[in-house]
Fold:
Amino acid sequence: MKQFFDEKSLKAFEGLTTPFYFYDLEVLEETLNAIKKAAADHPFKIHYAIKANANSRVLEKIKEHGLGIDTVSGEEVSCALEHGFEPKQIAFAGVGKRDDEIELGIDAGIFTFNVESLEELKVIQEIAEKKGKMVDIALRFNPNVNAKTHEYITTGLEENKFGINFWELDELFELLPKLDRLNLLGLHFHIGSQIRDLSVYKNLCNRVNQFQEIFRQRGYDLDHVNVGGGLGVNYEDPDAGMIPDFEEFFSIFKEFVKLYPGQSLHFELGRAVIAQSAALITKVLYVKKGIKTNFAIVDAGMTELIRPALYQAYHKIENISKGKEVEVEAYDVVGPICESSDCFGKRIKLPKTERGDLLAIRTTGAYGEVMSSNYNLRQNAKTIYKDEIH
Ligand SMILES: *Cc1c(COP(=O)(O)O)cnc(C)c1O
Structure:
């Protein structure tokens, strides 16, 4: 098993100001190679969901490997363009696109707007008319498939705000022929994030086939179907699950999605691409005895990693200053922010921990650094790459 922290990194950490995000881009490289290998020989196109992590070095590597970009804001579209991605590699989803964001996408000539409502269709048509341009779009549908993940990261149920619903189809088919500035390229779905039960993707495939059938019957010849992202990662045991099982993931789509001649299948993976490439390194400031537990109070908080506070997400925590031989105790690992939800984990078994020890909070590459904030007027934590300290 590959160790995420080698001796040299651990030594270098002692001289660094905490907290900081530590990235090993070799893990990203291996992950990207695994994706390419698993998707090879099929008409699959992979877009990276830039909202998971938009660091320049991460994006550079992703570009080197030829992935496209999935965006959910005008700012993300600009960021992708600035990093040298071609406009035709950029898809733009999002349930609330502002007019200026739509204009930006049209002016840049992006690959598609993944449109999430009938009203948005009309707005894009209007803006395109004004500009005298044709605009490529895909329709994002809510497939009503349960992703069996945390409710805050479930997006494909009828009660969720995302996408066009099945019962709007009649109205949609009435509207589409009137939208002469819009060129319908594809269908788009995205059912949620951190999906570990891959059988839910079979249900998505069935829905994709149904939607395709409906559009074919109406005479639409589509260029692609986009099945979104959501593939989960192993937060419990990152060292054992460093590279997600892309073979298994893609094999489901190979087996169950019916593609028509000339069609391609698009994916938008975020978390699975980058999550395991980083850890948040934090220092223990104080150890406090509670009634039922000890508190290890650390210098990172929900400002650097909000996932535990926001979705009760689990991240593995390790004491990287102590060896395995030391006696183990249970700690609530908490940050300094004035919120009770500012807690990285409860009853975490760690080697006896003291002020000054370094803890690693693992699997923070996705939705870690990008979701950081300056609450309590805190400064942004630094980003350290392994190859910089070697
Ligand atoms: C967030 C998002 C993704 C990526 O989700 P992951 O769980 O990180 O793979 C893909 N597509 C859309 C539309 C998204 O909003």
